[in-house]
Specification:
It is a single chain. The protein is an alpha+beta fold. 41% of the residues lie in helices and 18% in strands. It contains 5 helices and 5 strands; from the N terminus they run αβαααββββα. A hairpin with a 6-residue loop joins strand 3 and strand 4. The longest helix is centred in the N-terminal third of the chain and has 22 residues. About 4% of the residues have low confidence.
């Protein structure tokens, strides 16, 4: 629908203009900093029941709020787990319920062409935060 010729000017060209504005904001930020460190989400992950209680579009808007601008700008970014949340959720059946925490992460964003250095910085962060190893159980 949006890419049909009759809607090209109204939607597609407008989307390109918005994308360029977002890119320009990042370019301006990189004039005074080398990299950006931002949250990945505004909260920890919702439970399955909470997630399915709302439509996908609403959940995507809430959960992807912090990652959408960098994706629209086409910049390299990497997500690094930092810690486990203190918000324990019950997993499993009533009698065999286990308490678990959920990973919280940060997003490291770099300027165009900084992919390799960005990954080196992400690895450096991972080594320093000592994020707990997740063990998969059968």
């Amino acid at each position: 629908y949006f890419l049909l010729r009759r809607h090209y000017d109204e939607y597609y060209l407008q989307a390109l203009k918005v994308r360029r504005l977002i890119q320009n904001d990042f370019l301006e930020a990189f004039k005074s900093v080398d990299y950006l460190l931002t949250p990945v989400t505004l909260t920890d992950a919702p439970s399955f029941a909470d997630f399915t209680a709302q439509d996908n579009r609403t959940q995507t808007a809430k959960q992807d709020h912090c990652t959408q601008p960098v994706n629209l700008a086409g910049l390299p970014a990497v997500t690094v787990p930092i810690c486990l949340s203190g918000n324990n959720r019950t997993a499993g059946s009533e009698e065999g319920a286990k308490r678990r925490s959920l990973p919280l992460s940060v997003q490291l964003i770099g300027p165009y062409g900084s992919d390799k250095k960005l990954l080196r910085i992400a690895r450096w962060i991972e080594e320093r935060v000592d994020f707990p190893t997740l063990v998969l159980c059968d």
